[in-house]
UniProtKB/TrEMBL annotation:
<dbReference type="InterPro" id="IPR011669">
    <property type="entry name" value="DgcN-like"/>
</dbReference>
<feature type="domain" description="D-glutamate N-acetyltransferase-like N-terminal">
    <location>
        <begin position="57"/>
        <end position="134"/>
    </location>
</feature>
<dbReference type="Pfam" id="PF17396">
    <property type="entry name" value="DUF1611_N"/>
</dbReference>
<dbReference type="InterPro" id="IPR027417">
    <property type="entry name" value="P-loop_NTPase"/>
</dbReference>
<dbReference type="InterPro" id="IPR035086">
    <property type="entry name" value="DgcN-like_C"/>
</dbReference>
<protein>
    <submittedName>
        <fullName>DUF1611 domain-containing protein</fullName>
    </submittedName>
</protein>
<dbReference type="Pfam" id="PF07755">
    <property type="entry name" value="DUF1611"/>
</dbReference>
<dbReference type="InterPro" id="IPR035402">
    <property type="entry name" value="DgcN-like_N"/>
</dbReference>
<feature type="domain" description="D-glutamate N-acetyltransferase-like C-terminal">
    <location>
        <begin position="141"/>
        <end position="338"/>
    </location>
</feature>
Length: 347
């Protein structure tokens, strides 16, 4: 990335990062920061959190000036709270970071560039602001025509359940095997990890399928695009973006992501999670519109809320029930899922 000092520009930002946690007390609300710390630890020099925040990434606590002195270039607003809004305290912290010489990037629905005090601070310090949650290129309407290449889409029983982690784990495993494979980001955290992508929840509904076609174009190298899924077909608030991704991705394969300890849809206590078999079949049925040959190749389980022994038992039970490999991508890897993928989609 070349240096570029427009306050509302998209260049000039990049690692090393200071990860901002603010005052968020919900672990899911800091998933952006946690995703970067997990997948790109070499980029992260420290974390900035309010003194009463019990959450941590295990990184050194740093003020913006300390982080800048330690080599940080950019502060990442690592929160993804409900509604995607900035509190007054967050705005104040962003201005301190800009005055300390850091660029600031965010993936919230509320844009950095829409706050005049933040923009003024960026301009007076010659710093860059980047809002990841907006389409940064022209997006066509999808055409639905079959294009060369092989694609896997991660889908889920709920939102914030491990779709990005699973896609990145699959990319890592396939590359370690010497296979061409590319993670395709569709959300703000994935964009910060990959350095590119399209935040599909910021795309006008008619263009979501086109966005999926755009980020996973034709390829002729026998490689795979590992496309980060969003939302869930069964989530009343986010099913629309999930369906658009299923159609635009034209996936050859699906991996279903699930958290066994979750009892209801995130943010909706009255909505229980769907049955795994029912959810998988619904996703396959929707995907068949643009790729009738799509196959389910695995289940990715987020077992962070249970013991290792319980995790193994849960994975085995699900595998026996659905006839698919089931693994936790973080604690178990995805090798069995990749084996099944390659065997199922050979030729």
């Amino acid at each position: 990335m070349s240096d570029h000092d427009e306050a509302t520009g998209t260049r000039g930002w990049g690692p090393p990062y200071l990860l901002y946690l603010g005052a968020e007390a919900d672990d899911l609300a800091i998933k952006t920061a946690r995703g970067l710390a997990f997948w790109r630890p070499e980029w992260c020099v420290g974390q900035l959190r309010r003194s009463d925040n019990p959450l941590t990434l295990g990184l050194p606590d740093m003020a913006p000036a300390q982080a800048r002195a330690a080599g940080a270039n950019t502060m990442v607003i690592g929160i993804a709270n409900v509604g995607g809004m900035m509190s007054e305290e967050t705005v104040a912290d962003i201005i301190v970071a800009l005055d300390a010489g850091l660029n600031v990037i965010a993936g919230l629905h509320q844009k950095l560039r829409d706050n005049p005090d933040i923009v003024a601070a960026a301009r007076r310090n010659g710093r860059t602001l980047f809002d990841a949650r907006e389409a940064n290129r022209p997006i066509p309407i999808g055409n639905g025509r079959k294009r060369p290449g092989r694609r896997l889409l991660t889908v889920g029983t709920d939102c914030s359940i491990g779709k990005m982690y699973t896609a990145l784990a699959l990319e890592r495993s396939m590359r370690q095997r010497g296979l061409p494979a590319d993670f395709r980001a569709t959300g703000q955290t994935g964009i910060f990890v990959a350095g590119d992508g399209i935040p599909v929840d910021a795309v006008i509904a008619d263009f979501v399928a086109g966005a999926a076609e755009l980020i996973s174009p034709a390829r002729n190298d026998e490689g795979w695009d590992l496309i980060e899924g969003q939302g869930s077909l069964f989530h009343p608030l986010y099913a629309g973006v999930s369906l658009g991704l299923l159609h635009g991705s034209q996936p050859d394969a699906l991996v279903l992501c699930h958290e066994p300890t979750r009892r209801h849809m995130r943010g909706l206590p009255e909505c229980p999670l769907p049955d795994l078999a029912r959810c998988l079949e619904a996703n396959l049925a929707a995907a068949r519109l643009t790729n009738p040959s799509v196959k389910a190749v695995g289940i990715a389980l987020n077992t962070s809320g249970i013991s290792p022994g319980e995790a193994l038992t849960a994975c085995q039970a699900i595998s026996d029930r659905l006839g698919l490999p089931c693994q936790d991508p973080v604690t178990m890897g995805v090798e069995t899922i990749v084996d099944h993928l390659l065997a199922s989609c050979a030729g």
